[in-house]
Amino acid sequence: MDIKAVFFDLDGTLFTSTRGVATSTRKAIQELRQKDIFVGIATGRGPAFVMPLLEDLDLDFAVSYNGQYIFTPKEVIFQNPLEQKSLKNLINYATENHSDISLGTAHGVNGSGLLKFGETRLASFLSGVLPSGTSGVARNSFKHIIRRVLPQNSNLADNEEEVIYQAMMVATRNETARLQEAFPELLVTRSNPYSVDLISKSGGKLPGIQRLGEHYGFTLDQVMCFGDSENDLTMISGVGYGIAMGNAVPEVKKIATYITDTNNQDGIAKALAYYGLIHYSVEKDFVSKDQNFNKVKDFHRLMDGKTQEIPKAFSPTEASFRADFKVEEIVEFLYASADGNQEKFTELVNNLHQAVDKAANKVTLKEHNEDSLTGQVDAMIDLLYFAYGSLVLSGIDPYEIFNAVHRANMGKIFPDGRPHFDPITHKVLKPEDWEEKFAPEGKIKKELERQKRVAAKKHENK
């Protein structure tokens, strides 16, 4: 994969519900940096809030205030303040409609105590406690109590020397269209159900990321973005790989390239592992020196929710299921070898039946002193060896092909965010859109054509 930069939204994405950064996410960022992949933030929050996070996580840059203020730990790359006329109209509108408003500067956010309170951990906790249906009396009473303690700043318009990059206003979803109509020169976007962000029409997270790409030498199709809210929509749809968190709003999930787990369940690390950018493991899991094994382990962790960490032999029933899976692939191998000749395919399958009978007789006549686990592992490693041998004798480098198959297998997640299984064999089923989005045959064919071209060129140069 040609990923040059990864961007994270903050609330609901990089942050867990307690406003912390998961240990798995911190490890993932370190792995990305070790691979020389740029890592940044794309958020509606301001630079004063984001700068300590850049330093703490050793990140490269940030698109803050929804693209209005772009910076690194060492320099400001881009600034796009609100025009004074729009700013005064916004303040007048908020005053006339008794709406709480805050104004974002390079040094912090001034204005509504209610909006500032909404950024705290306590507010996040209380928001979770209040049922989603209590948008009436309970939430209004809650708002008035907080405003009494943290009153609205009535002197917003007094300090004209301060440059304002973004306005934040308390507004329901139903008020969004009215605000956009009242301020056609601005972009009204939303990162939560309770307030909107108002920025210049040319702003947005995606244009901000594009500006950084022009500055650092990467294109949008080389970018992976993580998000969960409405203000992430253009970003998620406009880059090469748009990842929706499991807790994302439905609109974001609908247009995402991939839907991962929630922000509280290691969603970022799991998605990065899905694309092969990092290896994800929980603390007690062992990690093999065989990276292909680790990728398959990531697949089983995603599908089964856990992995086997202590060596254990398969039961006869489990062994039968695993053997069925392998036999199916052997039959597919024979079918491909017959190259469309049904008569030849039937002959090859009959030969396979005879080979199974012959092998069964041979195994039963042989003396076996090993225990069940040792015998199973010995056979599985021999299968691996024969599989590699077949690739060697075909002149095929399996590395990129294995990765393509791995990504396809990791795409067997249904719209409900979960894998579905055959009730009898427990085999992972394919979603309806899997063939269109994930089927690996096209990628395998393309990689084989590349390998043949490279081999032919080497042969010509001899």
Task: Give a written overview of the molecule.
- With 462 residues, this protein is α/β, with parallel strands linked by helices.
- It is 49% helix and 11% strand.
- The protein is built from 19 helices and 13 strands.
- The protein has helices spanning 10-14, 23-34, 47-57, 84-96, 113-117, 121-129, 137-149, 176-182, 205-216, 233-238, 250-255, 267-274, 291-304, 316-338, 342-365, 372-394, 399-410, 434-437, 441-461, and strands at residues 5-8, 38-42, 61-64, 69-71, 76-79, 101-104, 109-111, 166-170, 186-189, 195-200, 223-227, 241-244, 258-259.
- The strands form two sheets. Strands 5-4-3-2-1-11-12-13 form an eight-stranded mixed β-sheet, with helices on both faces.
- Helix 10 links the parallel strand 11 (223-227) and strand 12.
- Helix 14 (316-338) runs antiparallel to helix 15 and helix 17 runs antiparallel to helix 19.
- The longest helix is centred in the C-terminal third of the chain and has 24 residues, at 342-365.
